[in-house]
Design a protein that fits this description.
The structure is a homodimer of 177-residue chains. With 177 residues, chain A is of the alpha+beta class. The first copy, chain A, has helices spanning 15-23, 26-36, 42-49, 53-65, 87-90, 93-106, 151-172; strands at residues 69-75, 80-85, 116-120, 132-133, 138-139, 145-149. At the A-B interface, α1, α2, α6, β5 and α7 of A face α1, α2, α6, β5 and α7 of B. Chain A binds a DNA duplex (30 and 30 nucleotides) through α3, α4 and α7.
DNA sequence: CTTGCAACTATGATTATCATAGTGTCTGTT
DNA sequence: AACAGACACTATGATAATCATAGTTGCAAG
């Protein structure tokens, strides 16, 4: 199997058609988000995205086939893998950031705190939603940013991870008191 | 108004989950691309995206329901509508631009011309793929950009429009010599 | 009064996704 | 040695989305 099969818009010059052919669906985007946040394990991707296990497996397979993700064995016996973004995958960061900005501005109740605070790596100032540095007075490149999850969002994520393992234990052994 | 039905990720603080709930699919993104390019008519959206008519109809309905698109009658008798992005829709531009940059850099054969050349509105210089102005020496905000389709891409789009009307005439009246 | 166009809607087949359950391989505990 | 548990999946059958194709409506021009 060669990479980037027929699911990309190969028959057009439009780069957006190409992009959406590879990451034009909810689960792929959410998985990339998680990988950018530093998650590497299958179950964490599943828990934090809310996708079913086949969705995660299928998407990871496709992302790997398209060269966005690499699978590394961190243990044979038992065979365990971690998933990491390739440079091609990491360069989706601007897409994720743009979706973040739009989502914060247009999809969330007014006045709610952003889920992630962004800082200018070189000067430490907190950036506004558009990625502007109030100290340096201009747009900051994504490579010069550092993100920090808000306490509320970190808590939500911990909760999700806990719920996931709970649910697993329950469905594996339903007759526990 | 806090509309946006149940298809957005309403139960999370993550703005990306919210965004992908509204535009986390290929057809929505491609339709937004077309609207940003200035197309307004149903058939043009269909021809240029390659979606089926129900997909266009369904997506426009959803985008309208979510407040990204407005439908204006430009003629009663016969009843005709045009579709336009609302400010909420227009603000997806950075997402589209990020997908463009990524698609040009990672999904197309090396050395191929970008489908669209971007210029700095205030100084006229052509921007690089990352949206940097070589004259002004920094990142340019999307509101200060102007795009111009390459001749090759314009031709591809003309071709697509022509093929579409051809196909329509043929399937409506198949026994023409 | 027929042809044609624009903007859809209807239909039935094919695919994708979902909820749920199960498998295989190891580790750590009893 | 036996067994529970973690992890990374795969299997299955039901439900939902998407596809190709065709049809409808409303009007205008010839």
């Amino acid at each position: 199997m060669g990479n980037s099969k027929d699911h990309d818009g190969d028959d057009t010059l439009c780069p957006i058609a190409h992009s959406t052919g590879l990451v034009g669906d909810r689960w792929s985007i959410l998985i990339v988000r998680e990988l950018l946040l530093g998650q590497t394990r299958f179950q964490d991707l599943q828990a934090q995205t809310g996708a079913t296990s086949q969705m995660v497996a299928a998407r990871l397979k496709r992302l790997e086939g398209d060269g966005l993700v690499e699978r590394h064995a961190y243990s044979r016996r038992p065979p365990r893998h971690e998933y990491r973004l390739t440079p091609k995958g990491v360069h989706l960061m601007p897409v994720i950031l743009a979706l973040r900005t739009w989502g914060e501005r247009w999809c969330k109740p007014e006045g709610e705190q952003p889920a992630t605070r962004m800082f200018h790596r070189t000067c430490g100032s907190e950036l506004d939603l558009d990625g502007r540095c109030p100290a340096c007075g201009g747009l900051v490149a994504w490579t010069d940013m550092r993100g920090q999850p808000s306490e509320a969002w970190a808590e939500e994520r911990r909760q999700r991870a806990a719920d996931f393992t709970d649910h697993r234990r329950v469905s594996a052994n339903p007759n526990t008191e």
